[in-house]
Amino acid sequence: MSSHAPLTIANGRLLLPGGTIETGALRCEGGFITAVGPDVAAQPGDTVHDAAGKLVTPGLVDIGVFEIDKPAFHFGGITRAAVMPDQNPPLDVPARVRFAAQSGKPDFWVHPLAAATKDLGGESLAEIALMREAGALAVATGRQWIGDSGTMLRLLQYAGMLGMVVIAHAEDAGITGNAVATAGEMATRLGLPSAPSEAEALAIARDIALAELAGAAIHFRKVTTAAGLDLVRGAKQRGVKVTAGVSPAYFMLSDLAMAEFRTFAHLSPPLRSEADRQAVIAAVGDGTIDVITSSHDPRGPEDKRLPFTDSAPGMAGAETLLPLTLNLVRDGVIDMGRAFDLLAANPAKLLGVDAGRLAVGAEADIAVVDPDRPWIVDSDKMAASAGNTPFDKQPVQGRVLALFKGGVTVRTKKTKPA
Amino acid sequence: MTSPEYIYPEGGAAFPHRSLVGIAGLAPHEIWFLLDEAEQWVELNRNAQKRREVLSGLTIINAFFENSTRTLLSFEIAGKRLGADVVNMAVATSSVKKGETLIDTAMTLNAMRADAIVIRHASSGAVQLIADKVDCPVLNAGDGQHEHPTQALLDALTIRHAKRVFNGLRVTICGDILHSRVARSNILCLSSLGAEVRVCAPPALMPTDIERMNVQVFHDFDAALKGADVVMMLRLQMERMQGQFIPSPREYRHLYGLSLERLEKAEPDALVMHPGPMNRGVEIESDVADLVGRSQITTQVEMGVALRMACLDVLTRRARKLEGWS
């Protein structure tokens, strides 16, 4: 039980499961939501937060981040993150998983993803069941695809037996090789090693077949191409336990962002064509994509102030996850309810945690959001441990005004009177 | 005979760029200006006395992060013939992990107050990265698979000497286009000057969407040669290949080697060019490489020195406060 006083968030517009928005209050006690609705009122002794008519939403649940970067997550309204096993050393033994699972508390929850294979080598299975005991909720292949189909099949069978979803990276390594860009005019003009975008569809096709064979659940961390999304869409229709994620870069940017060798646009998988970008937007709209992740991967100048091919892939995405996703709401691709399904409810469901929704009994991870508030992304002033964002100097809308983890205040931002 | 797009303004407006990082971004008249500037040095280099103290007192650093013999030598001779103090910084690729200290190295060179830095690096974009960090002009002597602008300019100078006009000229570039910065710079340069550029390679060595760079794509060498006025051969860049791109050099020669017999498919006066180093008996037969009157391979080397002298001269004019260039 929490020793903190109960919390009431009053005078908010509550984003409820199903997507309805209702004016009212929300009360939390002992770390859980105990009452939600128009009639809820603060009780004596409660800590009261006045939401001042702003949107009250679940805290974001971020699947597949590379660093625990609390200031950035808190800025972005993220209260839980599933951290990739690609740490140094990798999360491939129970002790490291146990340590990682504790590393964010009390104001942030880290859900470590167990490495699928020892040393993330893609060859021999890691001790997945023991890592589950230590707190791993899912298994991940890491930054790489598992090339050996037999290993991948056994992994899916084993994780399926344990009831753990396998989070896969979808790029056929035989085709990608040392590529840092998607094959196309941009990569050709820049002279960058590139691979055809079909590398993704090939990996997805195989992994769907193997998941189907094993009867196991698979989640593709980022699906970024029209062909890959078509495969996911088809498999879902057949009833395969497949889900797909993406990060905002792939619906906001195309490979043109790599112009002038901008290493902040060096991502993994690499940025795709404009047609693929449009396909990602359509897939978010039609429900093919289940999860939007920040894929937060802060990288300092030692990794990014290099020639493009020598630079490390990845972007610091935690702070821009919400505002960039809200672009899709403003553009009418999705509504607010669906946005928070993608950002909170679906990832929570995938991990099997009772969070990501404003409902009685769920964990009290709550954000107060002004979805219209404008601000400018500035890589020099980010909360993240590094400012490697391809959205530097871009105006965005949507800001987290207050954040609560387990019914306890994490941060509040002074709101200017209207 | 000069096309209107080749006419350049007086003084510094003729070449407003601080550095020469690529052909991309150069207007046709800027290319033409550099070619015109090179002519005086072609003349000079044919005299016994080859030195003119244009750059005396200036320091030029040749920073080659990737092995080179001919380009390094060409730049060194170019700088010395203009009277500059030329320093070569050869970085063994094995001792420096590429990129790791690149910015630091650039800042060091900058602090030594070089007046121009010539850079070759194995990574595409590396030269631009340095150019953005230093105070002096930077010349790209080849960056990864991106650009090799002085090679394209010297090739254009060679072609201009032999053919005089570019409009409608058919140029066939055959070889490892995928890994070739020479091909990219030449495509940009030649099509900018009005030539019709064809590229020929097996699919594995052809970059995706290369046709968007205003070229015709061929896989059949005989078809690519038909009616060509210039045939530019490239070597296979084995050192850049990860995995197998062609079955064997013998098979490659069978399909893409330039023999006398094949050369007959081109125009009777077609020029044969190669940026070097050549692999005789693979992409080019010895009798073609040495074909008097047709092979321009040694002329290319000669033009290279003159063209690089022109680039060093033009790019340092602002620092030297030449009239019209301040």
Automatic annotation (TrEMBL), chain A:
Gene3D superfamilies referenced in this protein's UniProt entry, alphabetically: Metal-dependent hydrolases (3.20.20.140)
- Give the compositionally biased regions (Basic and acidic residues): 296-307
Keyword check for Cytoplasm? no
Under the heading InterPro entries, the entry gives: DHOase, DHOase/Allantoinase_Hydrolase, DHOase_cat, Metal-dep_hydrolase_composite, Metal_Hydrolase
In terms of superkingdom, the source organism counts as Bacteria
Q: Where is this region: Disordered?
A: 292-312
Limits of the Dihydroorotase catalytic domain: 72-224
Tell me which UniProt keywords the record has, alphabetically. Answer: Pyrimidine biosynthesis
UniProt keyword annotation of Lipid biosynthesis present: no
The record's PANTHER family line, in alphabetical order, gives: ALLANTOINASE
Q: What is this protein called?
A: Dihydroorotase
Q: Which organism is it from?
A: Novosphingobium indicum
State the taxonomy lineage: Bacteria, Pseudomonadati, Pseudomonadota, Alphaproteobacteria, Sphingomonadales
UniProtKB/TrEMBL annotation, chain B:
Its function? Reversibly catalyzes the transfer of the carbamoyl group from carbamoyl phosphate (CP) to the N(epsilon) atom of ornithine (ORN) to produce L-citrulline. Catalyzes the condensation of carbamoyl phosphate and aspartate to form carbamoyl aspartate and inorganic phosphate, the committed step in the de novo pyrimidine nucleotide biosynthesis pathway.
SUPFAM superfamilies, per this entry?
Aspartate/ornithine carbamoyltransferase
Catalysed reactions listed for this entry? carbamoyl phosphate + L-aspartate = N-carbamoyl-L-aspartate + phosphate + H(+)
Query: Where is L-aspartate bound in this sequence?
Result: K98, R181, R235
Which keywords does this chain's UniProt record carry?
Pyrimidine biosynthesis, Transferase
EC code: 2.1.3.2
| Aspartate/ornithine carbamoyltransferase carbamoyl-P binding domain boundaries | 18-160
Domain annotation Aspartate/ornithine carbamoyltransferase Asp/Orn-binding: ranges: 168-314
Superkingdom, according to UniProt?
Bacteria
* Oligomer and partners: Heterododecamer (2C3:3R2) of six catalytic PyrB chains organized as two trimers (C3), and six regulatory PyrI chains organized as three dimers (R2).
Q: What class of enzyme is it?
A: transferase
- Supply the Pfam families for this chain: OTCace, OTCace_N
Q: Which family does it belong to?
A: Belongs to the aspartate/ornithine carbamoyltransferase superfamily. ATCase family.
Q: Carries keyword Cytoplasm?
A: no
Gene behind the chain:
pyrB
Output this protein's name. Answer: Aspartate carbamoyltransferase
| Binding positions for carbamoyl phosphate per the UniProt entry | R70, T71, R120, H148, Q151, G276, P277
Write down the species. Novosphingobium indicum
* Pathway listed: Pyrimidine metabolism; UMP biosynthesis via de novo pathway; (S)-dihydroorotate from bicarbonate: step 2/3
